[in-house]
Design brief:
With 549 residues, the chain is of the alpha+beta class. The protein has helices at 46-67, 69-76, 79-114, 128-137, 220-233, 237-253, 283-298, 301-318, 324-340, 433-437, 512-521, 524-533, 538-548, and strands spanning 116-126, 150-159, 163-172, 175-185, 188-192, 200-204, 210-211, 217-218, 258-267, 270-281, 350-357, 360-368, 371-377, 380-381, 384-392, 397-407, 410-419, 422-432, 442-449, 458-466, 470-479, 482-493, 506-508. The protein has a 21-stranded mixed beta sheet that branches. A two-stranded antiparallel ribbon has the order 7-8. The chain crosses the membrane at residues 49-72.
Length: 549
C-alpha cells in the first residue's frame, strides 16, 4: 500500500508515513499486542500487564530516540519548520567559512600593528624536461639553460605598520650567491650587500610607490596601513553572523507555503533517500520580503557602522576622496529608492527546494517561472560523494560535476568544471573540510584544461597547507605527468625583533657621485666568482664583468 499524501510505500503496521509523517488510516498492528491474553477475572494480574505495557512503551521510546530519531522528528516537525531549519543551517555554514577567513585576516593585520616576524624559503626548480620546455616555449628563449637547476631565497623579516627589515640569502644551483640586508620605512629604503660592500644604498620610498587601483599612489607602508584599516573595518565572524541572521530571519519569516514529500537524490551514480521540501514564494510575497529587508537595512545601526568603516578604508585606499559617511548616504539613497518603487516592480514566482537526508542538505534547487537557474546535488552514500552543480544565467550554464570519497572530513576525487563548451579537469588528492571550516587550508589538487588542444597535455599541481604559525604553497607545472618546474614557498612565524636601520655609510642611489662611490667599494670579483661557482656559463659572466667595470 502507498501513503495517500506522498505516495511513498507503507506497510500495514506503520502508523505514520516515514517520509512525510502522514497518519496511516488503514493502520493494523502486526502480531500479538501486549493486551492479548489479558485476564479480566482477577485484579492481581493487572499489575504485571501494566508493568509490561510500561516497559514496552519505554523500549519503544528509547528505540525511537536512538534508532529512528529522524523519523520521529519528521512526524512532529512541520514542513515549514523543517525547511527553515535546513536553510538556517546552510546559511550558518557559509557564514562560518567566510567569517573564519575574515578573522584570520584581521589577526594577520593586527600582528603587523603589534610587530610580526616572517621567515621561510622560496624556491624554483627545473627538471631536464622543464629546461627543454623553457628553451622552446619562452618568447625570448636562451640558447642553453641546461646549467640552471634551481634558485632559492631564504628570508627572515620583521614587519610593523611603520617599518620593516629583512635578510635575504640568495642561492643558485644550491650554491650561495649573495646576501641582502634591507630596511624600509615610510621615508626611505636601505639596501646592503654585506659580503661585497660595507656601504648602504638608500632610496626615497615615495619614488618606489606603486599604483593602487586606477587612482592614487602610495608607498608600501601607507598601503599596508590602509589594508589593515580595511581588515579592521570588516565585521568579525560573530558580528557577521549577527548581521546576516537578521536578514535570513526576514526571508524565513515570510515562508508559508512549503510542501514535503519523499524523494531521492542521485548524482554520478551516488543515490540517497531524502525528504524534499519546496517553498513556493509568490510575486507579492517576494515584494514583501524585499521591502522588509530594505526597512531593516535602513534601520540597522550595525550595518551602518560596517558600511561607514569600510567606506572610510576604501576611500583612502582608492584615493577617491569619498568618506564612509558619503558611502552610507549613497547606500541609504539607493535603498530608499528601491523601497519606494518595490510595489511597482515586476517579480517572478519562485520555488526554492532543499533535499534533506539525515541531518544534511544533499541538494538544492532554485526555479524562477519554471526555469531552473540553480541546481545543486551532493549526495553521500557510504563515503561515496556525487556532485552535480549547475548555475544558469538564462544564456550560459556553468557546471561542476564529478565523483569522490569523503573519509574523516577529507575529500578525494575527480571533478570537471564546464562553461561555454570549455572544460577544466580537477583531480582532488586531498581537501580537508574540517580545516576549511576553521579558516585554514589543507588541499592538494591538479588542474588541466582538457578542451584546449594547445595545452591539453599540461597540468598544474597545487598544494596548500596552512596552520596557525606555518604556511606552505607548492605549484608544479607538468606535462603528461612529468614534472617540468616546481615553485614552492614555506613560511613560518618566528620571534619578533624591532626593525633597525642598517649599519654603514649611507649613499643616495639618486646621486651620481654616491652611486660611483658605491661602485668603487663593491667587490665585483667576488660576485663574478660566486656566479662561476654556481655554474653560470662563462659568456654570461664575462658579459656582466664588462658591464660593471
Amino acid at each position: 500500500m502507498n501513503c495517500k499524501k506522498c505516495n511513498a510505500h507503507l506497510e500495514p503496521d506503520e502508523m505514520f508515513c516515514a517520509n512525510c509523517g502522514e497518519k496511516n488510516p488503514d493502520y493494523k498492528p502486526a502480531g500479538e499486542s501486549a493486551f492479548d491474553g489479558y485476564d479480566e477475572g482477577t485484579k492481581k494480574k493487572k499489575k504485571p500487564v501494566a508493568l509490561t505495557v510500561g516497559v514496552l512503551a519505554a523500549v519503544a521510546v528509547a528505540g525511537a530516540v536512538f534508532a529512528g530519531a529522524g523519523v520521529v522528528k519528521s512526524i512532529f516537525t512541520s514542513p515549514k519548520d523543517q525547511f527553515k531549519a535546513a536553510i538556517q543551517k546552510e546559511s550558518d555554514s557559509v557564514i562560518g567559512y567566510v567569517g573564519k577567513s575574515i578573522d584570520r585576516m584581521k589577526e594577520r593585520y593586527k600582528s603587523y600593528k603589534d610587530g610580526y616576524n616572517t621567515n621561510g624559503i622560496m624556491s624554483l626548480e627545473l627538471s631536464d624536461k622543464g629546461k627543454d620546455f623553457l628553451t622552446s616555449e619562452l618568447p625570448y628563449s636562451m640558447d642553453d639553460i641546461n646549467w640552471f637547476d634551481s634558485a632559492q631565497i631564504e628570508y627572515n623579516g620583521n614587519i610593523t605598520l611603520d617599518d620593516m627589515d629583512i635578510e635575504l640569502n640568495m642561492k643558485l644551483n644550491k650554491k650561495n650567491l649573495f646576501k641582502i640586508d634591507a630596511y624600509m620605512s615610510d621615508k626611505n629604503m636601505q639596501v646592503k650587500l654585506p659580503e661585497f660592500s660595507d656601504n648602504v644604498l638608500t632610496f626615497d620610498t615615495n619614488k618606489l610607490s606603486g599604483n593602487i587601483g586606477h587612482m592614487g599612489r602610495f608607498n608600501a607602508f601607507e598601503t599596508l596601513g590602509m589594508n589593515a584599516m580595511f581588515a579592521e573595518a570588516l565585521p568579525d565572524s560573530a558580528k557577521l553572523k549577527k548581521i546576516t541572521d537578521k536578514y535570513t530571519k526576514i526571508f524565513l519569516e515570510n515562508i508559508d507555503n512549503v510542501e514535503r514529500s519523499s524523494d531521492s537524490v542521485e548524482a554520478q551514480d551516488v543515490r540517497v533517500k531524502a525528504t524534499k521540501l519546496t517553498a513556493h514564494i509568490s510575486e507579492d510575497k517576494l515584494k514583501d520580503i524585499k521591502k522588509d529587508i530594505l526597512n531593516k537595512a535602513l534601520d540597522d545601526d550595525e550595518l551602518k557602522e560596517v558600511i561607514i568603516n569600510c567606506g572610510d578604508a576604501y576611500g583612502k585606499l582608492s584615493d577617491n576622496g569619498i568618506s564612509g559617511k558619503d558611502a552610507y548616504d549613497e547606500f541609504k539613497s539607493i535603498a530608499e529608492l528601491e523601497r519606494e518603487y518595490a510595489d511597482s516592480e515586476q517579480f517572478n514566482d519562485l520555488e526554492c527546494s532543499v533535499w534533506v537526508s539525515g541531518k544534511k542538505v544533499v541538494a538544492k534547487e532554485l526555479v524562477v517561472d519554471n526555469q531552473t537557474i540553480m541546481e545543486y546535488k551532493t549526495p553521500v552514500n557510504n563515503s561515496k560523494l556525487g556532485v552535480e552543480i549547475n548555475i544558469s544565467d538564462g544564456y550560459n550554464t556553468a557546471s561542476l560535476t564529478g565523483r569522490g570519497k569523503i573519509k574523516n572530513s577529507v575529500l578525494i576525487g575527480d571533478f570537471d568544471i564546464t562553461y561555454s563548451g570549455q572544460t577544466l579537469s580537477i583531480g582532488v588528492n586531498r581537501i580537508d573540510f574540517k580545516k576549511l571550516k576553521n579558516g585554514y587550508m589543507d588541499m592538494d589538487f591538479d588542474v588541466a584544461a582538457v578542451t584546449y588542444s594547445d595545452i591539453a597535455d599540461y597540468s598544474v599541481g597545487v598544494i596548500i597547507q596552512e596552520d596557525t604559525n606555518k604556511n606552505s604553497v607548492i605549484l608544479s607545472l607538468m606535462k603528461d605527468d612529468d614534472s617540468l618546474l616546481r615553485f614552492a614557498i614555506d613560511d613560518a612565524t618566528g620571534k619578533f625583533k624591532k626593525p633597525n636601520e642598517l649599519d654603514g655609510k649611507k649613499l643616495d642611489f639618486a646621486e651620481d657621485t654616491d652611486l660611483q662611490e658605491y661602485g668603487q667599494s663593491f667587490d665585483k670579483d667576488k660576485l663574478t666568482d660566486r656566479l662561476r661557482q654556481a655554474g653560470v656559463p662563462s659568456e654570461y659572466v664575462d658579459e656582466l664583468e664588462d658591464e660593471i667595470k
